[in-house]
C-alpha cells in the first residue's frame, strides 16, 4: 500500500491504476475476496478517475464470480472505444473481447461470434499467430452454433489454411496447442451433426 500512496501523492494516475488492477486481481483470483477486489477499484476511481483498464477488471471480477450479464454489460460499454492494443500494443482489450465472447455464448451465439471476431482482429497487432488462429476458430464455432453454417465453414477453411503454414510438433508448443484446439473444435461440430442426424432417423419430429 505504501508504494500506491506514493504514486497517489505524485499524482501518477497510470501507475496508480496499474497497481490497483494487480491488487484487485490478487484479491479476487487468489484470495477469493471479490467484494474487496471491487472496493479497491472504486476507491482508486474516486481518487484518480476510472479508466478502461479498471472497468475491464470490474468486468473480470463479475465474470469470475459467474455474474456474466453484468460482465458483458461492462465490456459492451468499454470495448468500442478501448484502443490500447492499437496505441501501446496492450493485449488486455483482446482478453476482454474474448471473455466477452465467452460470456455472450451463454445466451446468444451470434453475439459471441462477433466478440470472438473482434478479439481475433485485435490480436493481429499484439499477439502471436497461433493465438489469432485460435480466436478465429472460436468465432467459427460460435457461428456454427448460431446456425450460420456457410460463414462458419468459410472461416474454418481459412483457419485450416493458416494452420498448414505452422509447425506441428510438441517442441513448438503454441503452434502444437492450436493445432489440437482446431482439431477438437472441428470434431465437435461434426459430432453434433452426427447426433442430430441420429435423432432425426429415430424420430424426425423431434429435430
pLDDT under 50 segments (min length 5)? 194-201
Mean pLDDT: 87
Number of strands: 0
Determine Rg (CA atoms, Å): 20 Å
Decide which structural class fits the backbone: mainly alpha
Q: Report how far apart the termini are.
A: 59 Å
Taken as a percent bin, the fraction of beta residues is: under 5%
Brief write-up:
With 207 residues, this protein is mainly α.
Q: Helices, strands, pairings?
A:
Elements (H helix, E strand, L loop, with lengths): L1 H9 L2 H18 L3 H15 L3 H13 L3 H11 L5 H5 L3 H13 L4 H18 L2 H17 L3 H15 L9 H30 L5
Helix pairs in contact: 1-2, 2-3, 2-4, 3-4, 4-5, 4-7, 5-7, 7-8, 8-9, 9-10, 9-11, 10-11
Please explain how this structure is put together.
- The chain is mainly α.
- The protein contains eleven helices and no strands.
- The longest helix is centred in the C-terminal third of the chain and has 30 residues, at 173-202.
Please supply descriptive tags for the structure shown above.
207 residues; mainly alpha; 11 helices
Amino acid at each position: 500500500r505504501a508504494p500506491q500512496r506514493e504514486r497517489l501523492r505524485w499524482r501518477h494516475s497510470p501507475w496508480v491504476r496499474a497497481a490497483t488492477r494487480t491488487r484487485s486481481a490478487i484479491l479476487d483470483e487468489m484470495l477469493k475476496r471479490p467484494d474487496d477486489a471491487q472496493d479497491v477499484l472504486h476507491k482508486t476511481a474516486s481518487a484518480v478517475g476510472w479508466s478502461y483498464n479498471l472497468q475491464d477488471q470490474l468486468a473480470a471480477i463479475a465474470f469470475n464470480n459467474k455474474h456474466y450479464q453484468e460482465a458483458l454489460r461492462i465490456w459492451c460499454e468499454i470495448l468500442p472505444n478501448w484502443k490500447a492494443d492499437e496505441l501501446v500494443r496492450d493485449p488486455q482489450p483482446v482478453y476482454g473481447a474474448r471473455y466477452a465472447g465467452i460470456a455472450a455464448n451463454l445466451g446468444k451465439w451470434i453475439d459471441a461470434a462477433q466478440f470472438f471476431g473482434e478479439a481475433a482482429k485485435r490480436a493481429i497487432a499484439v499477439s502471436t499467430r497461433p493465438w489469432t488462429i485460435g480466436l478465429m476458430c472460436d468465432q467459427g464455432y460460435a457461428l456454427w452454433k448460431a446456425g450460420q453454417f456457410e460463414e462458419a465453414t468459410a472461416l474454418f477453411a481459412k483457419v485450416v489454411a493458416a494452420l498448414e503454414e505452422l509447425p506441428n510438433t510438441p517442441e513448438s508448443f503454441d503452434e502444437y496447442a492450436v493445432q489440437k484446439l482446431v482439431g477438437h473444435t472441428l470434431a465437435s461440430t461434426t459430432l453434433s451433426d452426427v447426433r442430430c442426424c441420429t435423432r432425426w432417423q429415430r424420430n424426425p419430429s423431434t429435430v
